[in-house]
Amino acid sequence: MISSDNKSKSLWATVKEIKGLQNRGDTRVPDNPEEVAETFNKYFSTVAENILKNMKEVEFDHNMPYNLNTILFHQQSEEEIIKIGSILKNKNSCGIDGI
């Protein structure tokens, strides 16, 4: 994924591989509001269990060193936060997918 030209596509391909391909089954939209509610309820009450059931074990290397250091936070004033924020450079930052 790191060397991929299209990181977003590569990331989603990996997610689909881990999750396992699933047939979506019947994709029609019911006309009856009660049937719509029941369909949503059935889907959302079982989706996590179904994903976990079909998930594959994959080796994951995050290439990040393990850090045992502790981070401590102290109370800061609004003025101090604004002062620090105003000296930061404006820039675009992105995640692994390049977005």
From TrEMBL:
<protein>
    <recommendedName>
        <fullName>Reverse transcriptase</fullName>
    </recommendedName>
</protein>
